[in-house]
UniProtKB/TrEMBL annotation:
Residues 398-482 form the PKD domain. Residues 1-27 form the signal peptide. Pfam families: Metallophos, PKD_4. This is PKD domain-containing protein.
Length: 557
């Protein structure tokens, strides 16, 4: 066999074994994107190249052991994850017909009322161009908890194709990790009164019509309201949306919220000195409601620039003893910037028509701090709002009991754990003390190395204080006995303190193999999507194929 044949065969063998061992990465025409994320739920949406009836999302805290199956069978999928823990980072990936996407992470919303929120906002970005990509990359670097999109999400006409090429492709990395809450722009209304916008996004539906055109939601102690300004100024037919219905929703919604901070966002600006100027219908129809119910900040787009007003009241600046509302135009998300044609009016604090960027907002306790971050990382504008907040009500306390089966033994040692939390609907997370985590009421873990491991268990329920407990697992070297500490490592006592952190003696009759949370017995836990042979079964097959090729070449010498 000459060297060229030998090299070619070796290369083939390496490719076969490497390919089978690593599995096949799933290349989606549209990467997964996050929608409707809340304290205990999230929607993972994605598009496939062909119909698939076995798509699913694998997810978990530090792993992807829990499975949520898609109820769709075609190319368009939106999988709802439930039973999540508030303010928790989850890892997830998509399985579809035997292929898997690379793992991504996202964070759930905090418990409603939590007094720390970080969000980003910008509009007029959906071009697919380099400036949009720079803004998206800068936003992801700042790691906001959510992204508020101020309209003109897909130029020039909001078609199905433009949503793919001008929104989901250039902003894929951001949308896979940060949930987007959008409002429609006038460019979305060019195509069938924003129907592709509604087809591609999964937004809250808490208005009387059950429509996604306008809505509200809480994130921590901030109440957000999205208004469809296209509808309000007459771009929508009455059957789609009406000004009267939207005003009724906004008034009822703002009157009902108990959150101390209120942020409203829509596309057409109430106050602007840019090319389009102020939209007087939005100012005069909704401004009085904002003032009546204590809205703190109004965010808009439409004009391709940045501008911040002074606190405004009615059609003028608020007096020194009056409470006004600052109105912002944040339209530098990626579309071509437009120069101001007039001098800066007296009500305008600051404006800029030269820099693309986004608004980064932190709301901590009674202080809202915002800054316009440019794509080069510089800050164009910054301001803060403050208010007195009442003392937060005490959160209810709960209890957590943990039992462990086989709390000691030689390596490799399997320990089984059961948690019992008093709070209804509590989510239980485990840290096994060796860098591995899991989630669920019943879990088991294999310790491969000798040592004494402190296992920390945390139960989290919405509206309650998280409760933790610890227990100890002792693993000896293979063939040795428990070194003996004078304590039962399964009692959950804290070494060195003598205090019981809330655990009890090992439960008799504990199942040796507890069910994995979120996985139904009989699930395909490795590949999903109807793939009957995994990589481990394919590697020997690859070896046989290579061996056959070797024999065939030798016979031909």
């Amino acid at each position: 066999m000459d060297r060229t044949k030998s090299l070619s065969l070796a290369t083939l063998a390496a490719l076969l074994v490497t390919g089978f061992a690593s599995g096949t990465a799933l290349a989606l025409p549209r990467d997964p994107y996050l929608q409707r994320v809340g304290p205990d739920t999230a929607t993972v949406a994605f598009r496939l190249a062909s119909n698939c009836s076995s798509a699913q999302v694998r997810y978990g805290v530090g792993n992807t052991s829990t499975v949520a199956r898609s109820t769709d069978s075609a190319r368009v999928h939106a999988v709802v994850l439930t039973g999540l823990s508030p303010a928790t980072t989850y890892t997830y990936s998509v399985d579809a017909c035997g292929e898997t996407t690379p793992a991504k992470t996202f964070g759930t919303a905090p418990v409603t009322g939590t007094r720390r929120v970080h969000f980003a906002a910008v509009g007029d970005f959906g071009t697919g161009g380099s400036d949009q990509k720079k803004v998206a990359a800068s936003m992801l670097t700042n790691k906001p908890e959510l992204f508020v999109a101020l309209g003109d999400n897909a130029y020039a006409s909001g078609t199905e194709t433009e949503f793919q090429t001008n929104l989901f492709t250039p902003m894929a990395a951001l949308l896979a990790q940060v949930p987007m809450f959008a409002t429609p722009g006038n460019h979305e209304y060019v195509t069938n009164e924003a129907q592709p916008y509604l087809d591609n996004l999964y937004l809250p539906t808490n208005n009387a019509e059950g429509s996604e055109r306008y809505y509200s939601f809480d994130w921590g102690h901030v109440h957000f309201v999205s208004i469809d300004s296209n509808c309000a100024i007459g771009l929508a037919s009455a059957s789609k949306c009406s000004l009267a219905a939207q005003k009724a929703f906004v008034e009822k919604d703002l009157a009902a919220t108990t959150q101390p901070w209120k942020v409203v966002f829509f596309h057409h600006p109430s106050w602007s000195s840019g090319e389009h100027g102020s939209q007087l219908t939005m100012r005069r129809q909704f401004g009085p409601l904002f003032e009546k119910y204590g809205v703190d900040l109004v965010l808009t787009g439409h004009d391709h620039d940045y501008e911040r007003s002074k606190p405004m009241l009615g059609d003028a600046e608020a007096g020194k003893s009056e409470r006004g509302i600052p109105y912002l135009v944040v339209g530098g998300g990626g579309a071509t910037l437009r120069a101001f044609a007039t001098s800066r009016p007296s009500w305008s604090v600051l404006r800029d028509d030269a820099a693309h960027g986004f608004l980064d907002v932190d709301v901590v306790e009674g202080t809202l701090t915002a800054k316009l971050v440019k794509t080069d990382g510089g800050v164009l504008d910054s301001f803060s709002l403050t208010k007195e907040l009442p003392a937060p009500p005490p959160l209810p306390q709960g209890t957590l009991d943990v039992t462990v089966g086989d709390a000691s033994g030689p390596a490799p040692h399997t320990a089984a754990f059961v948690a019992t939390a008093s709070q209804a609907g509590a989510t239980v997370a485990w840290d096994f003390g060796d860098g591995v985590t899991a989630q669920g009421l019943q879990v088991e873990h294999v310790y491969t190395q000798p040592g004494s491991y402190t296992v920390t268990t945390t139960a989290t329920a919405q509206g309650a204080t998280p409760v933790s407990a610890t227990t100890v697992v002792t693993v000896t070297a293979s063939g040795t006995t428990d070194p003996g500490t004078g304590e039962d490592p399964g009692t959950g006592s804290d070494p060195g303190t003598g205090e019981d952190p809330g655990t009890s003696n090992p439960r008799p009759g504990l199942p040796s193999t507890p069910a994995t949370p979120g996985v139904t017995p009989g699930d395909d836990s490795e590949g999903g999507g109807g793939c009957s042979a995994g990589p481990a079964a394919l590697i020997p097959a690859a070896a046989l194929l290579v061996a056959g090729l070797v024999r065939r070449r030798r016979r031909g010498r």
